[in-house]
Design brief:
Shape: globular
Low-confidence stretches: none
Structural class: mainly beta
Number of strands: 11
Largest sheet: 7 strands, mixed
Number of helices: 0
Length: about 120
């Protein structure tokens, strides 16, 4: 069984920064992708950033240049550094670990960008 746990959300003013962390435990393989998704009220869930086992990174256009995803395979963790945050970044952020069965989700962490 795989467990995925996020941390690091909160309230921040526009232009501020937050760092999200995600730890996966259980049957984790470094060749599987890990990533961050978000779900905002009235919107569909969207991929924010993901990193494959070989280190290939993919970002949503809306966060390119502002967010950075990083992964530590030795610790089975993935982090999302979010800079220059905007109100439109407000959402619940979910960590996802992919495997051949579809993958596992964390419980989500709320990020609110507001003055």
């Amino acid at each position: 069984q795989v467990r995925v746990v996020e941390s690091g959300g909160g309230l921040v003013q526009p232009g501020g920064s937050l760092r999200l962390s995600c730890a996966a435990s259980g049957s984790i393989f470094s060749f599987n992708a890990m990533g961050w998704y978000r779900l905002a009220p009235g919107k569909q869930r969207e991929l924010v950033a993901a990193v494959t086992g070989d280190g290939t990174v993919n970002y949503a256009d809306s966060v390119k240049g502002r967010f950075t995803i990083s992964r530590d395979n030795a610790k089975n963790t993935v982090c999302l550094q979010m800079n220059s945050l905007k109100p439109d970044d407000t959402a619940v952020y979910y960590c996802h670990y992919s495997d051949y069965k579809g993958g596992y989700w964390g419980q989500g962490t709320q990020v609110t960008v507001s003055s």
